[in-house]
Amino acid sequence: MCGIVGYVGNRDCADVLVDGLSKLEYRGYDSAGIAVFEKEKIVVEKSKGKLNDLVEKMLQGKKPHGHCGIGHTRWATHGEPSDINSHPHGNKRVTIVHNGIIENYKPIKEFLISQGYGFESETDTETVAKLLDYYYDGDPVQTIAHMIDEVQGSYALGIMFRDFPDRIYAVRKDSPLIIGVGENENFIASDVPAILKYTRDYYLLEQNEIAAITADAVVICDNHNRLVEKEVLTADWDIDAAEKGGYEHFMLKEINEQPTAIRTTIAPRIQNGMPYLEESGITGEMLKAFRRIYIVACGTAMHAGLVGKYVIEKLARVEVTVDIASEFRYRNPLITKEDLVILISQSGETADTHAALKLAKERGAATLSIVNVKGSTIARESDYVIYTHAGPEISVASTKAYSVQLSIMYLLAFELAYVKEAITEQRCRELTEALVSIPDNLKEVLEMKERCQFIASRLVNSDSLLYIGRGLDYALSMEGSLKLKEISYIHSESYAAGELKHGTISLVTQDMPVIAVATQSDLMDKTISNVVEVKSRGAKVTMICSEDLDVDKNVANHLVKLPKIDDLLMPLLAAVPMQYIAYYTAVLKGCNVDQPRNLAKSVTVE
Ligand code: F6R
User: Fold this and answer.
1) pLDDT band at 166, cuts 50/70/90?
2) For residue 401, which of 575, 591, 140 has the smallest C-alpha distance?
3) Which of 43, 320, 10 minimizes the C-alpha distance to 186?
């Protein structure tokens, strides 16, 4: 989604804005722009396309020179990507950048037109800019407070008022915005990586707080103009975490960071060889008391929840319902105050997951979020939070965030199974120890990149592909399938292997490659029968299985054999070849791996 950066200080503002925006490219965008005070004049430069297109324009002598300004990368919602629809928007007196959606922009626009305002763009944002101009009475804070009363929807805004050329203003509701605090310079940004090069200290702006930011001061007040005191937070991500570090793509780097991410995530949650989740505020006894567990999330995070369901139900014998957040929020779910709703989100800002959280709270259920970004909206608003420590995930396609989400699912399942006496202490210790060994096992799996590269070379010309599996392997293969389609643009579906012959097998020909995930011993024979079925219909089959599988080498065309560990934990290993296969297929096809078309990293609109 859109990215915002703002700067006030002594540096060349345009350079800082472009640099900050480049760190937000991962959010997805189709145009970019900046506005800078040149003395007392607001100068805007913007362009459809990538940041480089904007830089090209600036190199042709159109670079605004100054020390105070705002910048934006736009992910189109209202109006196609174009120079005119790009942000900043406004007029000579008020100029803004916006992330979010203004739901009632149409009546406001009609009103403003009746007051003589003209509009250039098709955006909802321009309405806010002109509304601010309409209310402007010489007092920016008062003006912004008026705007807040009028506007419905979500917004993070960076605002410049011509009369105040030494400062920028910021306000947010339901869209993220932080204020970076430096020495004689300050920033605003949609996310921490944009400011890391300059400072690690930042404030989190809360709902409808208004900030006035100059080079040496940040003054924050609520919408009734009462001053707000805030704690300065310090980002524990260092700058290297947001750079490629020698890898060709962030995705490849992040795949390889999984051992460290898992180790860092689980280490504080294990004590004396047993799961320990109490720092989140949720105890084993509390977990045991819930009637039912719901897991709600989107995309990859929802797939982590599906693995969680299998593991929790298998080990703890507690019913778990997994929901896609955009369905959950509108299906009037049967949640009560006796239930636990677990929200999983890398960004902690996903609009549908956030709405699901609000719904669960309204119904009185306890809410536990599993979130990667500290201080994000979902983390702050849930009753309990378990942070995953994956570090910044920059590639749009999620990899390491998935693994750490799985790791927390496992710890929850072990803890719950143990307190419910569904497993013995010894089994709980064994499983916890196996989880601790995963980072070492993963190092071995990460070495299999050439094998996966070869398999990718066999898939690259396909139009469509099937992933199949049973039980945990089916849950896992959904993620493999999503990864492949989102970055290589090869259509792919994940199917429960046993369900194939109820219709989908009619698609299987020599032109339909199949990837079979078969890591679960109890279902192995059945999955192999399904593999034989598709292979005998011409499909080229890749099988991802464990090394102890004694299988005729002709059963599949290609085998990826993983180290043998406890079956229950196999998804943590089997995810890697799937990620590699997706990655290398996309590379071979020449796709934009880290920023696939039409996708945004943080989906802050519905
Ligand atoms: C796919 C992917 C998305 C996200 C989904 C939820 O690779 O990254 O499917 O998993 O948009 O995002 P978060 O986890 O930020 O709520």
Assistant:
1) very high
2) 575
3) 10
Ligand 1 neighbourhood includes 133 CB (under 6 angstroms): no
**3-state SS class at 514:** strand
The 3-class SS string of 80-114 reads CCCCCCCCCEECCCEEEEEECCECCHHHHHHHHHH
Sequential DSSP letters for 124-161 = SHHHHHHHHHHH-SS-HHHHHHHHHHH--B-EEEEEEE
Active site residue 109: no
Instruction: Work out whether strand 464-469 and strand 514-518 pair parallel, antiparallel, or are unpaired.
Output: parallel
- Peptide bond just before 88 cis, omega within 30 deg: yes
List the Cα angle 86/69/196 in 5-degree steps.
95
SS3 213: strand
Q: Residue 473 — φ and ψ, nearest 5°?
A: -65, -30
> CA nearest 414: which of 306, 286, 275?
275
Q: Which amino acid is at 363?
A: R
pLDDT of residue 25: 86
In 185-318, the DSSP E strands lie at 186-189, 201-204, 210-213, 218-221, 233-234, 270-271, 274-275, 293-297
526, 482 contact by CB (below 8 A): no
pLDDT at 352 over 80: yes
Residue 291 has pLDDT above 80, yes or no: yes
CA of 244 to the centre of ligand 1 (A): 20
CB of residue 371 inside a 6 A radius of ligand 1: no
pLDDT of residue 224: 87
pLDDT tens-digit readout, 35-83: 999 998 999 999 999 999 999 999 887 899 999 999 999 988 888 889 9
Q: Which uninterrupted H or E stretch holds 446?
A: helix 425-446
pLDDT of residue 26: 80
> For ligand 1, is residue 603 a contact (CB within 6 Å)?
yes
Q: What is the pLDDT of residue 103?
A: 92
Q: What is the model's pTM?
A: 0.83
Which tokens is 259 given? 């051992």
d(CA 363, CA 328): 13
Q: What pLDDT sits at residue 443?
A: 95
pLDDT at 244: 83
Summarize pLDDT for 544-553 with one digit per residue, the tens.
Answer: 999 988 778 7
Do residues 221 and 228 lie in contact, with contact meaning Cβ atoms separated by under 8 Å? Answer: yes
Query: Is the Cβ–Cβ distance between 128 and 98 less than 8 Å?
Result: yes
Q: Is the CB of 377 under 6 A from ligand 1?
A: no
| Model confidence at 237: pLDDT above 80 | no
Q: Tally Cβ neighbours within 10 Å of residue 506.
A: 9
- Report which protein residue has its CA nearest ligand 1's atom 8: 398
Q: How many CA atoms within 13 Å lie on the side-chain side of 473?
A: 26
First to last CA, the chain: 11
Residue 539, pLDDT above cutoff 90: yes
Can you spell out the DSSP letters for 280-338? GT--HHHHHH-S-EEEEE-HHHHHHHHHHHHHHHHHH---EEEEEHHHHTTS-----TT
Residues whose CB is less than 8 angstroms from the CB of residue 339 and which lie 6 or more positions away in sequence, other chains included: 290, 291, 292, 293, 294, 365, 366
Q: Which atom of ligand 1 is nearest to the CA of 402?
A: 10
